[in-house]
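Entry 14. Ran structure prediction on the chain below.
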Amino acid sequence: MLHLLFDSAFAACGGNAEDNEEATSTFDVKVKLLSIGSEGGKLAVDYSIKGSKEGNTAEVSTDKDWIHLGKTYSTTFSFNVDKNETGEDRTGEIKMTCEGVQPLTLVVSQGKEGSSSQAYNKFKIEVSEITTSSARVVITPVNAAETYLYSIVSKSDYDKFANVEAYIKKRIEQIKEMCAIYGMNPNSFLTKGTFDTAKLETARKTTIMDNTAYYASAFDLSFDDKGNASYSGKIDLCEFRSKKATQSNMTLSLSVSGTHLNVTSSSSGDTWICDVVSKDAWDEFSVPEDAAHTYISTMTQYGALTLYKGSQSVDVSGSLTERGKEYVAFAVGYRQSDTDGGLTTEVKYITFKY
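Output, structure tokens:
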């Protein structure tokens, strides 16, 4: 708990946990994420040591020049934080060590000027190396022993939920459904400690769509032996946008003849994709690009994505299920590439009645 600093008699550690003595004792700190406003100020941290080293005094250090450590006693230590004039949220670490005690890292989170909320709740999320189809995500938990669920979710899908609780419950429901189908342990879906997508096998990495807003998300979650879920209800989100694919000069025009979609292309070399959906299904998408991305994602998952070149007449009878019903046909330039793949033209579409 944060409080005013007070004096106390103490015994010094005389070393750290990396020395020869085995670390059998542990630090007990109730709050491991220390949040402070942009103006900065003074904070103090209560702690104790559990085990044979009880009553010893921690050695405290930091990696940031805007965090200034004060005096350290056997039950508390203080530090000052400079005013944040960087214009960005920032975080720093305070490391606690003592010979024979397992090291502990605390996180100091300071919001930017004018911000009313802390930089994050339980998980520091960093996104980098963004391409049209991938991004590197590194998650550092405040409590390394706590399990959590990580995912990348499109901003449009996340925003459909009424609140954080609704999103978390949906993810738990999905985990339980997977466990029921495949006989899996729900805890196998969870992560513990620092997570870095760069260390995952290619098959386990999440594929994202080009030019799309996403959240990298993480929230604490655990399951007991009976499969009951426990969570705090807090979530950390890091918003990012995937890169836009290099655009093509190709133009597309569409017409429908019976059960065939006729697509005229101005290019003989650039590739494109097409599909037909019901008007009701089309209206559920916020923008035409969402419909194209959904089609690409679904067909890729089943290994059934077809790319066309030049002008083609495509049989779409499989998508026309009811006569007299309104449908929407669309076509869009699309390039397959690990670093520059995605939609390469605007989505062209027409509405027709079958």
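Residues 1-10 have pLDDT under 50 and may be disordered. Will compare against last week's run tomorrow.
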